[in-house]
Amino acid sequence: MTKTTLTEKIEILARFARKPRDIGEMLAWIAPDGDGNQDPPEKTLVHESIQMTNAEYDDFADNMLEPRAWIEGGGFFGKFRIAIAIESEGRQTLYLDPSGHNYGRYVGIAA
Q1: Cα–Cα distance between 111 and 109 in angstroms, integer?
Q2: In Å, how far are 11, 13, 34 from 103, measured between CA atoms?
Q3: 76 confidence band (pLDDT: 50, 70, 90)
Q4: DSSP letter string, 78-105
Q5: Do 108 and 26 meet the contact criterion of CB atoms below 8 Å apart?
Q6: Which pTM value belongs to this model?
């Protein structure tokens, strides 16, 4: 795992799930419901990138509520959610806002 603080924050739109157990629950949470409704995407500033091996990524994706030493920060800056990009080759980038906790409190994907 390689953690990089970005010199310039990246602005994206992302949809987040609150306290998802795993990536399946996160994706179900942010998918449109039967009426085509879903929460609007949120303005998000990515301030840090974490490059993971596929095994590390899969472990996080399967156990998002597990406390982890590398998770910190998050919250809001004005109208923006502050997030960490979690990346792994061949995997979808996840955006994590721990909101001061050490687990996947809010996890999402780019809208």
Answers
A1: 6
A2: 23, 22, 30
A3: confident
A4: TTEEEEEEEE-TTS--EEEE-TTSSS-S
A5: yes
A6: 0.92
Rounded to whole angstroms, the Cα distance separating 64 from 3 reads 18
pLDDT tens digits, residue range 23-55? 999 999 998 776 666 788 999 999 999 999 999
Partner residues linked to 16 by β-bridges: 108
Q: What is the pLDDT of residues 55-72, one digit of tens each?
A: 999 999 999 999 999 998
**Interior/surface letters 7-41, b for 16+ CB within 10 angstroms, e for the rest:** eebeebebbbbeebebbeebbebbeeeeeeeeeeb
